[in-house]
Amino acid sequence: GNTDQTFEALVVPDNKQTLVILEDQSAEHDINSVRRDFVANVSHELRTPLTALLGFIETLQGPARNDPKAQERFLGIMAVEADRLRRLVDDLLSLSRVEETERSRPTNPVDLEEVIRQSTELLEPLAKTAKTHLQVVAPEQPMVVPGDAAQLQQVLHNLIENAIKYGATEAGITVAIHPPAYERSLQQECIRLTVEDQGSGIPERHLVRLTERFYRVDDHRDREMGGTGLGLAIVKHIMNRHRGRLLFDSTEGQGTTVSILLPTVIENLIRQSSIP
Ligand code: ADP
Fold it and tell me: What's the start-to-end Cα distance of the chain, in Å?
């Protein structure tokens, strides 16, 4: 497939709930085939809107030359396709920038409530259009982790945007910060952020693949939603850099909760990396 990493997936069936823990276990072994796959996928993703644009240009120059109604309609479609191209290029750039930073540890103190506030403010209009609403739940005291504020904001933005695009309901979307707690999976104290929707959920077999580049649960539907298929790949790389974790918990027909775990202490990050 088009995976760029391999994951250790821990699937814990609990009634109908599924919890999948993604862990980056990438090895250098097939880095070259991964690169080839990626280039092939990018080419395909760029080609689709480009082909549409070229087709409509041809039509505008020929058959639709004297048909203002058709011209207007085609220009509308062309604008959508051009916008798709722009978003794809933006996300490819984000991905490459995030990859570039992955070797350095982010150490600035980041106030997570501030990060959430900024992301929800930006996405409020999209939520309104999708006939849903965002609610934020945060403890009284400030929740601070060592990190990169802009990158963490991108994480929250991508997760909340997904909840709106794929999980909008009248019940709303809850973004919560949980007080620091010891996380066995990371063997250290972490702050957990959750983005919870009550949408249709994600079938279990897809959960381990969501962070692959260009992976979509329903290729046609998800393209229609305007996603590039890179959002969660970007999130994964940012979480790797923060030595954190990304977890998907989804029940079909009931909704999806995406959690991120962020270590609260930077010293532990070094210790963590020596754990096999
Ligand atoms: P995109 O940029 O296309 O939205 P992502 O990498 O962000 O791609 O997400 C990958 C896929 O995961 C989406 O195409 C969608 O099918 C699925 N997905 C992500 N979040 C949710 C959610 N909250 N509910 C249902 N499906 C989701």
Answer: 27
